[in-house]
Each structure stands twice: as C-alpha cells, then as structure tokens.
Amino acid sequence: MLPSDLSSVSASRGLLALSPVAVFLCLYLVVSLVIGDFYKMPLSVALLAASMWSVAIYSRGGSLVQRIETFSRSAGHTNILYMIWIFILAGAFASLAKEIGAIDATVNFTLRFFPSRFIVPGLFVAACFISLSIGTSVGTVVALSPLAVEMASASGASLPFYVAVVLGGAFFGDNLSFISDTTIAATRSQGCNMADKFKANLWIALPAALVTLGIYVFMSIGTPEVAVGDSADPWLILPYLVVLVAAVAGVNVTIVLTLGIVTALVMGLMYGHDIISLFGFMGAGIDSMGELIIVTILAAGMLGVIKAAGGIQYLLRVLTSHVSGVRGAQACVAFLAGLVNLCTANNTVAIITVGSISRDIGERFGIDLRKNASLLDSSSCIVQCLIPYGAQTLLASSLAGIAPAAPFPYLYYPWALAMMVALSIIFQFPRRLNQAVR
C-alpha cells in the first residue's frame, strides 16, 4: 500500500506538474544538441521559459499572485540564499586571487614539483581527497576550479575536461564522506550508522574512482612536459594555500572563502596594489556570478512549484507501483533517487524526499538498509554531477567561464559510478548485505 499522500495525485495532474522539466530540457539540451553548440542557448533563458510555464500551469495554486508567491518562497529558501552567499564570495576570491597572481604562482609551483604529464590524475586525486575530508562537493569545486583553469591554460588542454576532472573528484567525497550532508540524510532515513554505510558504499565508489583514475593515467601517457615560468613569486601561493588548508580542516566554506579573500587582500597590498584596485577586482568577480545567481533562483523557484503542484508525489507513485523482486526493488530505489534529483537539482533534498518510501521498499523486499542508504547516496550523486543546472556544475563552469553543459562529455566518474551501481544490483554485492538488518 502506498501512503495516501502519494495516491492523491492523478496521472494528468502529475504529468502536467512535471512538464516544466520537459520544457527546460527541450529548450536547453535538445536545442543545443540540434545546433551542435552548448554555448548558443543561454541556460537562463531556458529556465526562465520553464519557470513561467510552471507558474502558468499551476492552476491549483490560486491566483497569479499566489502562484508567484509559491515560486518566490522556494527561490528565496534559506538553502538557496546560503548558496548565493557562497557564489558571491567565490567570485570575489577567484577574481582577486587571479589578478594579484596567486593562481599563476600556484600553478607554477605545482608544475615545478609534480610531473606535468600526470597533472590530470593528480588533480583528480586531490579533488577526491579534499571532498572526502570536508564532505562537500561545493567546497571542493571552490578550492580547485581556479587552479584547474590555470593548469588547463598552461598546458593548452581542454578547459571543460579539467573542470570535469574536478567535478568527478568532488562527488567522490560527497558520496563517501562521514560529514557529507548526503551521507547524513541517507543513513538517518534508512536507520543505519555511517560506518556501515561507508563500508557498503566503498564497494561501489572506490572501484569507480580507480577506473576513472586509470583512464586519466592512460590519457596522460605521452603527454609532453609543460614549460614552467620563473616569474611568479612563490609567496603568492599563500591565499590559495589558506583556502586549501582551511577546507581540508573542515572549516565552513563561507569562512574558508572569507579567509582567502582577507589573505589575498593583504598579499595584494604587500605587492603594490592599492586597496581601490583590489576592491575593483573583487567587484568584477562578484559581477561575473550574476548569471549563476539568476539561474539558481529560477531553478529553485521552478522546482518548488513542481513539488507544490504534486509532480514529485506522482513520480514516487509511478516508480513504486510495479516493484517486484530484490533486484527490481534495489533498481527502483536507485532510479527513484536519481529521477527525483533530476527534478530537484539537489541530492540531499532528493534523498530526504524519497528516504521513507525507499526504506519501506527495502523492508518489504529484504534489502539491507545499509545497501539502501548506499544506493540512495550514489544514485543522487550521479545525477547531480551530470545535470547542467546542479549547483556544483554551475559554480565550476561560472568560475571557468564555460557553458554549464561543456564538461558533460568528460564526466567519466559519474558514469563509472553508475556502472558500479548497476553491477552491485545485478550481482548483489557486497554479499554480506544480502539480508536485511532487523
């Protein structure tokens, strides 16, 4: 039996509620694929059209003013405003660090002591380590994206490829870390402890990371050495070093960025910049986040209307109505988390949304709840990494100055993770989790 709140949405109403997602995907992805250029179709325009459509079709939401209020409440949620704070601080720090020469100095220092032909595998390992340490993919993107941009420029490599390397490593830790909000949400919703979920998840995430690392090592063989410049002062590494150390220490990302900005300001003054010029660099960086902030607000508002209109309820009902067998139940849990994440663009929200019904499915079909938690976390992370309107991709692409969909062809880790999730369902590993915990 389904909960009453899942059975109350009709098919026509549910499909209509979900239609803004289809409008967005058609306008952005389909149009971009047809014309063969992801830079031509602005993400903000596609989301604006989808947002207007979501408000227009939400007839049960009352008057137009009331429907806009529903949109605005979701767009102005505290989580969204917190994310915007991060975007603003990240833009200010990235621009300031670049203009005073901190990023160039960091790249030169890295290339001097690390074989440049293996920079890509090293960048991936660094992203995995930092994200595992701090438990947030956003913090990892903030810490490593500017460095990836300059490394790509120094080596003449594809910028979207380097951004994809950082994104893949960032989601490795987001999926596994004990202090990640997705881990906390998954374990609490399934009633298991973090250590057990970590062990179950390791069977899926670690092989995927090793496969991805192997691909990067193979791609790096025969890569020519990159010439290292001598002009950059190694002391200019300090702002970036402060950010990395604070991030790994688990300091809140807003404080991490504030420390980075203060350090960069001090270094800038020491190296002859006047304070007004430094503020100008920060202002330019903040301005560069404008489209990202608009996209974030539009996406949050649109997805909030979809949920209020019953789209998520309908999705849950359809996906759980024909579950049969242990493998089918596990596949349903994984697909449920991924599809809801597609509609909410937030892996933590997706896990919370489907957590209780996933636990019901697990208990009904004898799925170990540790495996359930692992499937929820892994599947939501896969989709969050692949969608062009996820906060992590939007932030990384904004810092790099590329289209949000540009890294997509190079996102090897989420596809490797998806393969491991599928294999874990088909072959039912780890074997010790074949029986549910009672």
What does this structure look like?
The chain has helices spanning about 5, 10-35, 45-55, 65-75, 80-100, 100-115, 120-135, 135-155, 160-175, 180-190, 195-220, 240-250, 255-270, 275-290, 290-310, 310-320, 325-345, 345-365, 370-385, 390-400, 410-425. The longest helix is centred in the middle third of the chain and has 27 residues, at about 195-220. Helices cover about 75% and strands about 0% of the residues. It is built from 21 helices and no strands. The protein is mostly helical. The mean pLDDT is about 85. Helix 2 (about 10-35) packs across helix 16 (about 310-320) and helix 7 (about 120-135) packs parallel to helix 9.
Notable characteristics:
438 residues, mainly alpha
Spatial gap, N to C terminus = 21 Å
Low-confidence stretches: none
Q: Estimate what percentage of residues fall within beta strands.
A: under 5%
Number of helices: 21
Structural class: mainly alpha
Major sheet size, sense and barrel closure: none
**Outline:** globular
The chain-level mean pLDDT equals: 85
Task: Supply Rg.
Answer: 22 Å
Record field, number of beta strands: 0
- H/E series: HHHHHHHHHHHHHHHHHHHHH
